[in-house]
Amino acid sequence: MGAYDKVLLARGKGRATGLSYVNNIFEDFLELHGDRRFADDPAIVGGLATLSGMPVTVIAMEKGSETKEKVRRNFGSPNPEGYRKSLRLMKQAEKFHRPVVCFVDTSGAFCGMGAEERGQGQAIAENLFEMMDLKTPIISLLIGEGGSGGALALAVADRVWILENAVYSVISPEGCASILWKDAKKVKEAAECLALTAEDMKRLEVVERVIPEDRDLETICQELRTQLSEELSALSALPPETLLENRYQRFRKF
Amino acid sequence: MNLMGLFRSPQNELEKGGSEEAGITNTCPHCGALLPLSEQWENLNVCSACGYHFRIGPRERIAYLTDENTFLELDGNLKSKDFLNFPGYDQKLRNAKLASREKEGVVCGEAKICGEPCALFFMDPNFMIGSMGTVVGEKITRLFEYALARSLPVVGFTVSGGARMQEGILSLMQMAKTSGALRKHSDGGNFYLTVLTDPTTGGVTASFAMDGDIIMAEPGATVGFAGARVIEQTIRKKLPQGFQTAEFLLEHGFVDLIVPRSEQKETIAKLLRLHKRGNA
Prior knowledge:
- The complex is a heterodimer.
- Chain A is α/β, with parallel strands linked by helices.
- Chain A has one domain: Alpha-Beta Complex (2-enoyl-CoA Hydratase, Chain A, domain 1), CATH 3.90.226.
- Chain A has helices at about 5-10, 20-25, 65-70, 80-95, 115, 120-130, 150, 175-180, 185-195, 200-205, 215-235, 240-250, and strands spanning about 30, 45-50, 55-60, 100-105, 140-145, 160-165, 165-170, 210.
- In chain A, strands 1, 2, 3, 4, 5, 6, 7 and 8 form an 8-stranded mixed beta sheet that branches.
- Chain A is globular, with a radius of gyration of 17 Å.
- The mean pLDDT of chain A is about 95.
- Chain B is of the alpha/beta class.
- Chain B has 2 domains: about 1-55, no CATH class; about 55-275, 2-enoyl-CoA Hydratase, Chain A, domain 1 (Alpha-Beta Complex).
- Chain B has 10 helices and 9 strands.
- Chain B has helices at about 10-15, 35-40, 60-65, 90-100, 135-150, 170-185, 200-205, 230-235, 245-250, 260-275, and strands spanning about 25, 35, 70-75, 105-115, 115-125, 155-160, 190-200, 215, 255-260.
- In chain B, the strands form 2 sheets. A 7-stranded mixed beta sheet of chain B has the order 3-4-5-6-7-8-9, with helices on both faces.
- In chain B, helix 6 (about 170-185) links the parallel strand 6 and strand 7.
- In chain B, helix 5 (about 135-150) packs parallel to helix 6.
- The longest helix of chain B has 20 residues, at about 170-185.
- Residues about 1-20 of chain B have low confidence and may be disordered.
- The interface between A and B is large, with 47 and 52 residues.
């Protein structure tokens, strides 16, 4: 399977979106809304849940499944409010010593006028800066599209895992092809060049784990529940200074 | 001080034209005024008619900002590798080196500004428009680590079209890497001043450009996350005049102050003095 086929799979109709993972992994998810500054961004869902009895903060990008729902969620492209809501919930997680689990699935941060007016770049920058110093464990899962800075804003984590058919890239193959060759049709070539598949991520040490997808969602989520709970327990046992230094070194190596 | 010899960007024309009396002029892209090159250089590459700030490279910045002979360059020999075998990247790097006369898209070092010591970085508009790859990220990260170890403030001039796609996901990782180094420097109680210059966009805006304790901008600089063309394609209409300029960011609360080139040295020195450790 070529890299662009993976891109199509990652974007595919019928592919499980953020909330399906949240609802299948956690039993008691309680959604919390708003960034306390401007609005509530439906492209990012955040809230509380328990994982094997452990309280956790959950943040998930959500593209929506039906057309109406997709429009309401802006096709999973967050505005600055989404990132600010995420940061608010992460700061709360830190205060109450809860680990954070993020689900990443976006073609990218939204490129609209309002997003620029309200500081899209600043919102992402602040998340990266704060997540580097968040004194509680963070695990991020790339479940579909990992579109550039808009994805990274929820993926500065102690562990980053990726689904077998998810992708992670600095630019979309379409964007790359049109900039590089002024030809949007060269997407396949661009996708190969960008090294954006789960396999590439493992090879480049951008992720620790690739989750196989040759099973149904429920089985995948059941396995993830066990793995998340084991990994979060181990990370929670680390002294905060060690946790932060390891997180720094995790990204320092690139 | 005669700055002529230090400003090199239009040097080719000077070499071709020979002497100054040749009357070489440059046209201001903003107001169309014909500017004698000698005058343009003396004026720090700012149009004397309308105040338009031409894009300039790191060496020009060093010349007008830092005290004479105080700049000590750091990590000047780091060079990018084409580790993904990305089509055309090698050639692009060669062209960028020729155009900028630098080895990479950022120049880092330590210097004094009106006697105040600081660590500095200058991104280069002539090196792939300051695109951020692993070497740019590494140099900036090392600079913050260097400054942290010496309790030095950092002054950073940003110019960037964004992350360098020829280095794939690892260029995206530079945003996280630099943010970590910034954070440590900040937690050490050290001051970081960013100066946003034309253009500052994409992954650089979404990381270290917007993380300054104080954010300064050059007049008229384009600053934003998404490029204007991408936004226009998304919303299917033309953007209003002045969208994503330094002035627009000031109005929306994302920039502390806009400072013309001629006043930058003085203003930066003042800010460095106000943030001196042990003053309290």
